[in-house]
From TrEMBL:
InterPro entries: AB_hydrolase (IPR050471), AB_hydrolase_1 (IPR000073), AB_hydrolase_fold (IPR029058). Its EC number is 3.8.1.3. Residues 1-19 form the signal peptide. The keyword Plastid does not apply. It is an enzyme of class 3 (hydrolase). This is Haloacetate dehalogenase H-1. Residues 60-176 form the AB hydrolase-1 domain. Pfam families: Abhydrolase_1. Keywords: Hydrolase, Signal. SUPFAM superfamilies: alpha/beta-Hydrolases. GO terms for molecular function: haloacetate dehalogenase activity.
Amino acid sequence: MLRTLMVTAITLTATAGLAQDAWLTIPETPAMPQAASSGTASVNGMDMYYATYGSAEGTPVLLIHGGLAHGDIWAAQVADLASDHSVIVADTRGHGRSTNDGSTYSYELLAQDYLALLDHLNVEQVHLVGWSDGANIGYTISTTAPDRLASHFAHAGNVTLDGIDPSVETNEVFGAYVGMMAEDYAAMSPTPDGFEAFLGGVAAMWATEKPGGLEGLQSVTAPTLVVQSEHDEAILTEHSQAIAEAIPGAELLILKDVSHFASFQDPNTYTQAIRNFIDQ
């Protein structure tokens, strides 16, 4: 039977003084800690920025950000997890410091990029933590290269187009996020004036791509935690429930008092949820 968990201050250590309407804000993330190594990997016709943190033995943690973002949004999680895990972050194709060779965005291509990055780093298997498009990339890897995943913490992903809440197109919080990422793109990208074209390419993927559908998830073998925010602007709760029901052995975790941007809004609780899953 599918077990649904509601994260509260009783079950996890929530951020002290978390505002009741935290889901209506997108706080700035802290600066990234010092990387153990960083660079670019030439994969699939583009240069992919990556950085590694920590030096612990064992299976590394790969953090994959959402659409329009970049690896630095994981700063709070990296600072915590790198104390006893090896952590890998990267900028997805065309995002942040990574280039694009003009290829059309698709989850299959982005998954291939991350698999090529793992090959470049000589990493056989990871605990994958994916947010939004990162979760969709994770679902794609789960079904196409399952041996590369030790586990998948999948927050706010969708595997069918009807899993997206249509009201997200006019949502003010989501609009504020797009504005924040436009500023970051101008500061980080090798093509700083190209945000509108970049946004158009990613939005086209959002409107047309579905990573496998629910039927394809029935073959997933990696332990999977499907994570849904209580006030998600983009992903319908019933869709996350359907994903969790489709994946053998998966569980559904509902994060309370946060939205699609939970890692920004309550980073301590978010990171503890990751730890509770990958360290079990």
